[in-house]
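Hypothesis: this fold can be encoded by more than one sequence.
Test: take the structure tokens below, design a sequence, compare later.
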């Protein structure tokens, strides 16, 4: 049996970044929690981060990332690359089962344990079980609406919650 939890969506638009996450945690065929919070403000609120996967693993990675931000004076690009390198090379970290989305109004990255540091072309990134649905909805809204980043993130996550059985509509959204 697998625990599945959270869809995270990040949208950069008009000088703003919104990262939204749903709250569902599912164990096999049972919803165990409706209001999980996997989106955080870090680095004194200047950086947003969200994680999908194991909560303990995601929090561990967020703490490591925040440490890298401190080490590199809030340079998100450098901190992302250094975390990805450490995550890939360290045996204990390699076992962590989570993905991170981190960003500011200027940069957005998806980080993985395989060393990936991906900055999406269109300023939209999604991870987790409903990620593809949320990303597709966000892409359509960016192209065909004048909604702001937060409104797009919330609307797209709502769409994902209506399609993906592991995503709900208990949305937490942070904006910088």
């Amino acid at each position: 049996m697998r625990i599945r939890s959270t869809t995270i969506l990040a949208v950069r638009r008009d000088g703003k970044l919104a990262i939204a996450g749903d709250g569902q945690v599912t164990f096999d065929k049972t919803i165990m929690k409706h209001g999980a919070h996997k989106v955080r403000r870090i680095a004194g609120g200047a950086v947003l981060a969200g994680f999908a996967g194991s909560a303990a693993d995601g929090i561990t990675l967020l703490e490591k990332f925040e440490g890298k931000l401190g080490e590199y004076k809030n340079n998100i690009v450098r901190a992302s690359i250094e975390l990805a390198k450490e995550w890939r090379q360290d045996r204990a970290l390699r076992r962590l089962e989570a993905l991170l989305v981190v960003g500011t109004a200027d940069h957005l990255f998806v980080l993985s344990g395989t060393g990936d540091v991906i900055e999406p072309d269109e300023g939209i990134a999604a991870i987790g079980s409903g990620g593809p649905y949320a990303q597709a909805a966000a892409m359509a809204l960016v192209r065909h609406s004048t909604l702001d980043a937060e409104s797009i993130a919330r609307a797209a996550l709502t769409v994902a919650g209506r399609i993906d059985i592991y995503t709900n509509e208990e949305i937490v959204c942070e904006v910088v």
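The mean pLDDT is 92. The longest helix spans residues 55-71.
Hypothesis status: open.
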